Amino acid sequence: MLCSTCSQDLSESAFYKRSNRPRGFHSSCKDCITESGYAIKWRHENRDKVKTYNKRSYVSNPEPYRTASRKRSARIRKAEGTVTTSEWELVLDIYGHQCAYCGVNTDPLTMDHVIPIARGGTHTADNVVPACKGCNSSKKDRMPWEFGYPRTPYDRMDEMARQLHFRFDY
Fold first, then answer.
1. What string of pLDDT tens digits covers the 170 residues of the chain?
2. Do residues 148 and 41 touch, judged by C-beta distance below 8 A?
3. Domain count, the chain
4. Residue 100 and residue 32 share a domain
5. Handedness of CA 53, 57, 58, 64 (dihedral sign)
6. Does pTM top 0.70 for this prediction?
7. Are residues 79 and 32 in the same domain?
8. Straight-line distance from the first to the last Cα atom of the chain, in angstroms, rounded to the nearest whole number
């Protein structure tokens, strides 16, 4: 199949399935969609649709969500370190109470692990950043550079590390 964005001839597995398309696949490959941030922008612009879809999906089949939640809780319990309330408040202050990825100033912000716990990251203040629910859900267990968002949490990580070490004396 030919990608409409990068013009490469790729296998069907390189494209997202779309039932409303003539061939049953999206016209751009997965890599091009990730690079453009189209899916993330669409989710931000259509939050009500996404919320309705997710709620309907959860109500019709809650067990996969519960299983995922249990697995995540177990990973966090096994991960090294902790994040205290005062450390989390400092991280929020450093990022100006904005999402580290898209810059949206929304409440509540969720705690995102820059290096995901699933990939060996720690549950410490120097590995967490504030993220809106949309970005945190979209990032999943990917690294920031794999996430495909133009803004990275590393923009303020040096400042955060300096203040954390200064204030909390690790």
1. 898 888 999 998 898 888 777 778 888 888 887 777 777 788 888 989 999 998 998 889 888 888 888 787 877 778 888 888 888 888 888 888 988 888 888 878 999 988 888 888 888 888 888 998 888 888 888 887 787 765 566 656 666 666 655 444 44
2. no
3. 2
4. no
5. negative
6. no
7. no
8. 53
Looking at the DSSP bridge assignments, the partners of residue 15 are 29
CA distances from 86 to 80, 83, 93, 156, 164 (A): 18, 8, 10, 18, 10
Q: What token pair was written down for 25?
A: 């696949």
Tokens found for residue 139: 């990032």
Tokens of 150: 């133009």
Domain that holds residue 127: 37-168
Question: Does one domain contain both 63 and 22?
Answer: no
Helix, strand or coil, per DSSP, at residue 17: strand
SS3 22: coil
Task: For residue 157, give both structure tokens.
Answer: 């990580």
> Which H or E run includes 113?
strand 110-113
